[in-house]
Amino acid sequence: MIDSGITAWMLISASLVLLMTPGLAFFYGGMVRGKSVLNMLMMSFGAMALVGVLYVLYGWSMSYGSSVGGGLLSEEGPFAAIATPIDFAGGTVVHINAGVAALVLALVIGKRKGFGKEVMRPHNLPLVMLGAALLWFGWFGFNAGSAYAADGLAGLAWVNTTTAAAAGVCGWLLTEKIRDGHATSLGAASGVVAGLVAITPAAGALSPIGAIGLGLVAGAISAAAVGLKYRFGYDDSLDVVGVHLVSGLWGTVAIGFLAVDGGIFYGGSPSLLVVQILIALSAIVFSAVITLAIALPMHKFLGWRVPVAHEVSGIDLAVHGESAYESQASPTSSWDIQK
To answer: What is the pLDDT of residue 69?
Structure first.
């Protein structure tokens, strides 16, 4: 029998998660240079189109068909003898995975022309903040929807999600103020995402007070980590490593301290902390190996980089034949040809 209340909540949650994709498009679209913004938007919207079809053809069967096992995080997984791992909504499989993949790809592809020599600031900060707001709203479906019911656990995840996001903003801005003397709008938007990333694996396991501490630390350490790309020379143009990898690792490992059920700060043994560290390391190794296995052959035989001329003129004009802003329009763009 279908429960109408649960079904309604899951449909709402799925719709909220769908909203995160254009939110991410705006967030990252504002962070890139103006000559590349349409390409960034198109990658997000193109993913919606492609995945929307693939889910019907393959995704549903993969999600709900028969399975040979439960994987690393299941109660039958390899770490279950130590303690049952906790990843409420995907801190390992989404954020650590994405952060490691971003780092590997940045190293394989190489730096943009002028990286470290030219100033490459976000071209549209209002767009970044709009994207962060949409992500914050959509993340309620991502985290609270992972309760798979409209119950108390979903309510706790909802409260922890918004609390950690708010604390992430505070942690990031405090770090900026102390380090740089001012707090920025980019920092506020990035702090939202850092807090949301950190709470993703822990949304159903922490108290709201724990979520505040988690978000504060996430915002602070990610604010410090985004500058590592200049020190070590990798071109992480969207700060995926500094935000998603760093805050994803923190959120996953911090469960061992802050979880109400089994965390060290609540009288638990170190076993939960150990298993959380193990699943984080497993996600790092898995993502690095698989990403390299895909990226290196593509880099050798197909090539990742656009031609230097296209990089200089802008990917929007080169790939899409259009520009986001009139000042960048080409007299030979497809729009002018149609006119």
So the answer is: 61
